[in-house]
Amino acid sequence: MRSPPPPSTQQPSSSYGNPYQPQAPPGANTANMYSTYGGFLNDPTAQMGFQVGKTAVMAGQEYVESNFNRYINVSALKHYFNVSNSYVLSKLMLVLFPWRHRPWSRKQAISSSGQDGYFLPPREDINSPDMYIPVMAFVTYILLSTLLAGFHGAFHPELLGLTATTAFAIVIIEIIALKLGCYLLSISNESQLLDLVAYSGYKFVGIIVTLVLSASFNRGRGTGGWLGWTVFTYTFLANAFFL
Description:
Number of strands: 2
Order of helices and strands: HHHHEEHHHHH
Oligomer: single chain
Number of helices: 9
Distance between the termini: 124 Å
Radius of gyration: 34 Å
Strand order of the largest sheet: 1-2
Shape: globular
Largest sheet: 2 strands, antiparallel
């Protein structure tokens, strides 16, 4: 008698598929995805939507710029932020030690037409007022005041808004008083308001120096004492001489 034939062995099925079957090229799914999105981008409805959105954004930008320019000249405002690192360091030294600085007149340049003159930007003229130092000093004063209050255990969230509001109100009152004086003296200039804002903000440099030195050497007793009043008197006189 013959022995029965051996059972046929089946190849285990792999989850990766038959290796002898032709596989799709590697970039087939990516190409299908790109073709799908490419078809969407080429769709006339999508193109119309993009065009309408672009038109709306440009119209909104023009509306904001036209209304903003009614109150503030943007091109003139950019002039006040045209500063460099060397200018900032030199201007801070000038604000704190203005005693021997000469000259104080601003530099002018002649336009290409050869008729109209204009003032050089701050990075090219140390006597030119800028907005960078006053804005940074204003923000630093607010943060430093609340930080010192926190060291004394008197910090609360409303202190940030209260300090900012008080400092801003003082600047507004100063500008109103200066504008009134310029009006009474018949002094007019297109960039006069921005000049007044810039000059009004330089006083925060002296205030910051007073707070830092008083807090460092007064052993946490605040800005009082002989050191605080000495530094305050010096920075006050230096700022008055600078202006």
